[in-house]
Design brief:
Layout: H1 4-19, E1 25-34, E2 46-47, E3 49-63, E4 68-72, E5 77-81, H2 92-107, E6 113-120, H3 130-145, H4 152-167, H5 174-180, E7 186-191, E8 196-201, E9 207-213, H6 221-242, H7 253-262, H8 264-288, H9 292-308, H10 315-324, E10 330-335, E11 343-349, H11 353-368, E12 373-377, E13 384-385
Parallel strand pairs: 4-6
Antiparallel strand pairs: 1-3, 1-13, 2-7, 3-6, 4-5, 7-8, 9-11, 9-12, 10-11
Helix pairs in contact: 2-3, 2-4, 3-4, 4-5, 6-8, 7-8, 8-9, 10-11
The chain binds alpha-D-galactopyranose (GLA).
Length: 386
């Protein structure tokens, strides 16, 4: 795998090759995981993301034309976007890039251009926020180049809007907050109801956080995601008619019993939501106590709930979680991100990392004829200029 230093070197060299110019500045935008608090961000809930040591590196230089040219090292392809235009493209990365350029240029009256090279080592489209990182990387670069100051939370909202517009999704703010507002070696605890963020040390001595890419593509995830958002909202609307409540956070378990008869689907979704919020609170406590076994147990409960109540898992990841139980020193794991494939995280004792890696790779390959990608992750700072 290309490491951070290589990403920087490659982006710098490609900038000279493509644009005959030294970059004016470089950027590093990390991907993110989520320790706990899945499918809670769009329901005013709690989540605990952290950046991971996988990045998109950008090299940016000025250009005389009123055009934005973005060259992707990963796709070995480039896109040219007019700031005042409304071009549409048929590949995801170009669509995201165009939406970023159009929204920022329009909002801040930019009628100039820039040239960029982007290259990254975040596995694409598998729940580690490669799309959000791409949008953040381009948006921040344009702002920096044209001296536009945007405060972190505001920037996160803007990038969320760009991404949702480009992809036709209704995603929450987890990815953007996780990437823009994170701190090195810290887990964030975000409360999406009051917009508060707390940071706790990402320390669990003698243990390793492992991300496994199932290599299962998340094709149906966008429509299913929108469906989940809708089912939760419908549940809240039904309960609002019965109880004096105004937000998701006012819902408690006894209220849900009433929902059970009216909409079993919304009932299951909101049961997950209530328990998952509580798991974020419990996770904070167990992490602070260094209680690895209990941290693992919370991960397992979350996976069970994402599988049976929220119904966003897939058989390949369910198999991986079930098989992991056989590894001594594996504490727990769960699917992360939007779901329906992509990645899962695992907490494994340092001494058991080798066994875990071998056992999962071999069994998963035998069962599905797929080689999973296994990444031991650390937690670097969020977006940075270099
Ligand atoms: C995707 C979305 C996030 C969040 C997660 C599920 O990653 O982009 O906003 O909803 O799914 O927790």
């Amino acid at each position: 795998m290309t490491n951070k230093e290589q990403l920087i070197r490659q982006a710098r060299a490609e900038c000279k090759k493509q644009y005959k110019s030294e970059p004016k500045f470089l950027t590093l935008t990390p991907g993110r995981i989520n320790i706990i608090g899945e499918h809670t961000d769009y329901n005013e809930g709690l989540a605990m993301p952290a950046t991971i040591d996988r990045w998109i590196c950008g090299a940016v230089c000025e250009c005389q034309d009123k055009l934005f040219t973005i060259y992707s090292l990963n796709y070995n392809d480039k896109v040219i976007i007019t700031p005042t235009g409304a071009e549409k493209f048929n590949t995801v990365w170009k669509q995201l890039a165009a939406a970023a350029v159009h929204v920022i240029s329009n909002r801040y009256n930019i009628n100039a251009g820039a040239s960029m090279v982007l290259g990254g080592n975040i596995p694409i489209g598998c729940g580690l926020s490669s799309s959000s990182a791409l949008v953040i990387s381009i948006t921040r670069s344009i702002c920096h180049l044209f001296n536009i100051q945007i405060e972190g939370r505001q920037l996160a909202r803007l990038c969320q809007k760009i991404e949702n517009r480009a992809l036709g999704t209704a995603a929450g703010l987890l990815d953007q907050y996780g990437i823009i507002l994170s701190k090195k070696d810290q887990f964030m605890i975000i409360d999406f109801q009051d917009d508060s963020i707390e940071y706790i040390p990402a320390i669990l001595n003698n243990n390793t956080w492992i991300v496994v890419n199932s290599q299962v593509s998340r094709e149906l995830s966008e429509s299913a995601y929108l469906q989940r958002v809708k089912e939760c909202k419908e549940g809240l609307e039904i309960l609002k008619r019965e109880f004096a409540i105004s937000s998701f956070r006012d819902i408690d378990q006894p209220m849900l019993e009433l929902l059970k008869n009216k909409s079993d689907v919304s009932y299951k979704r909101l049961c997950h939501m209530i328990d998952e919020n509580q798991r974020v609170v419990d996770m904070k406590d167990k992490l602070q106590k260094g209680a690895a076994e209990k941290v693992g147990a919370i991960l397992k409960e979350s996976h069970k709930s994402l599988k049976s109540l929220y119904e966003v898992s897939c058989q390949e990841i369910d198999y991986m979680i079930a098989m992991s139980e056989n590894v001594n020193g594996w504490y727990g794991g769960r699917i992360i991100g939007g779901g329906f494939g992509g990645c899962c995280i695992h907490l494994v004792e340092d001494g058991a990392v080798g066994d875990f890696t071998y056992y999962i790779t071999e069994n998963y390959r035998k069962k599905f004829n797929i080689i999973p990608e296994i990444m031991n992750v650390t937690f670097p700072e969020g977006f940075q200029y270099i």
